[in-house]
Structures are given as structure tokens and as C-alpha cells.
Amino acid sequence: MDAGADVLDIGLSGTEELYWATTEFAACGGIEVTASHNPINYNGLKMLKAGSKRLDPASGLPAVRTWAEEKVFATPSTKGSRKDIASEAKSAYVTKLQSLGRNCFETAKGCGEFGKRCCGYNI
Predict the structure, then answer these.
(1) Tally of domains in the chain
(2) Residue 75: how many CA atoms within 13 Å on its side-chain side?
(3) 99 included as an active-site residue
(4) 74 is in which domain, residue-wise?
(5) Residue 123 pLDDT
(6) What is the pLDDT of residues 81-98, one digit of tens each?
């Protein structure tokens, strides 16, 4: 926000929600702090461009690294804002999943509260 970016905060979410929300809310990009189930060197940030497109590992990620290391930051005329849309985003995401039908989520029986709620199971 100090660099002038307006932030839509979707709250605690999974990677699939980041991809969905970046497109759904027409964001110019998306980023999440992640702790992977993979080894520790996979923990970090997941960054997307508009349309939920990933940064090109060959050009996009090295550019971000260079900007960070060289402190190449824009000087905005105004500070950005933060809008909490977590409740709205969760509700819209669940509605989208439910619209896809129950059968495709039968494998979610063991995936915890969120998956069960999407499938209509009483928990």
C-alpha cells in the first residue's frame, strides 16, 4: 500500500482461492504468503499476474528479485488502500463451488470443514 497499490484482502485462504479471486475481482495481480506441504524451500510467496496467470519463472521472477535487491520502487503520489472482502469472497467462492455440483467434490469428504461445507455435509 505504501507503493500506491490498492489491496483486496480475501483473508486466510488456499491457493485455489487466490487464483479464483484474482480473476473474479479483476485484480491486476495476486499474492499470498504460503507455507507449503512440500519441503521448506517451497515456502514463500505465490504471485500472479492479471487473469490469474503465473509469473514466468524465466523472466518474471528474476525481475521481481532484481527490483527487491536494488530497491527499485515507484514513488506514488498517493498511498494505496486496503479493503477487507474476506466474507464476500468466501461466500462467492462457496457459491461458485456449489454451482459446479456435488459429485465433483465427493473426494472432499476428508479435506476438513471447508470441503464439507461446500459439499453440504453437516459438520
Answers:
(1) 2
(2) 0
(3) no
(4) 1-83
(5) 46
(6) 999 999 999 999 999 988
Whether residues 57 and 106 fall in one domain: no
Asked whether residue 68 falls in the same domain as residue 107, the answer is no
**What separation in angstroms does the CA of 21 have from each of 47, 63, 85, 94?**
13, 24, 10, 12
- What CATH number is associated with residue 36? 3.40.120.10
Those residues whose C-beta lies under 8 Å from the C-beta of residue 118, and which sit 6 or more positions away, are: 94, 97, 98, 105, 108
Q: Which long-range contacts (CB under 8 A, 24 or more apart) does 27-34 make?
A: none
Helix axes 86-99, 15-24, angle to 10 degrees: 100
Q: Is the same domain home to 116 and 78?
A: no
Give me the residues paired with residue 54 across strands. Answer: 48
- Answer whether residue 122 shows pLDDT above 60: no
pLDDT digits (tens, 9 = 90+) for 13-48: 888 999 999 999 999 999 998 887 778 887 888 899
Do both 76 and 100 map to the same domain?
no
103 shares a domain with 63: no
How do residues 46-82 score in pLDDT, each as one tens digit?
899 999 998 888 888 898 889 889 988 878 899 999 9
